[in-house]
Design goal:
The protein has a three-stranded mixed beta sheet with strand order 1-2-3. A hairpin with a 2-residue loop joins strand 1 and strand 2. The chain is 68% helix and 10% strand. By secondary structure, the protein is mainly α. The chain is built from ten helices and three strands. Helix 2 runs parallel beside helix 6.
Length: 304
Amino acid sequence: MAHDHSHGHMAADGRRLRLAIVVIAVGLVAQLLGAVLSGSLALLADSGHMFSDLAGLVIALVATIVAARPASGRQTYGYRRAEVFAALVNGLVLVAVSVSVAVAAVGRLLDPGQHEVLGVPMLVVGLVGGATNVVALLVLRGGATHSINMRGAYLEVLGDLLGSAAVVVASVVVLTTGFVQADSVGSIIIAAMIVPRAWSLLREALRVLFGSAPGDIDLDDVRSHIAGTPGVVSAHDVHAWQITSGATVFSAHVVVEREVFCDMKVDETLDALDKCLAAHFEVEHATFQLEPVDHAEHERSTHV
């Protein structure tokens, strides 16, 4: 059931990404033309960000297609982690774009005299770019809650929408005051808005890749719940990690009273542990190894 549900999400995500790619591609062409006509660095910066959006959406689409491939004898969890790698690439691209934009903007602030900025084309194209971002966000919003890959794509476009807003504000300042440095200031603001979202995405992707426990699962809390199950003495070698966002895997060695084995209560104990975990934690797959007390005493003393 979980695999079918995941596959259905991936099919829907693929449709969302294809439509968003078309929308962003149209907006990118418009912004590049506007940047050339207006001489606006902010608009060029937003075009670069929109290009990174487009590249990120293509990467996300490829990852979605790869992730939908079935599991095999060697790839026992399938290829679902492709989504995490796509999110990592998107995060790195966002950081690269923000740094390059900030460097160019500072250069113009230090030497503004050599650059002419035309406010009207900058304003019109900024509004067009913002409109395409809004459409793309509406398309992607449905997939951003269940997939780190889709969340990365969504954050890419959200950052670009904020960038378009900065372009519009800067163009209005240029038109009304003639303060052309507003274009460079807008570029720096765009870069500053990109970085926090990029860091959040990179941190989440790295957490999954390093096999860290999901942020919403406290392993001490899990141990306490397991220890409260009838017949259970303690739990060790408790691990929780994610294949991709929303796909948490759990394993634990559970020390039980000898009577659990002698009285044939193994099935009953496993059912109780499964129900306990399902009731309190969102875990897609759990594995419990039951051990009698005297066996656990012979094991290594480096348990977590």
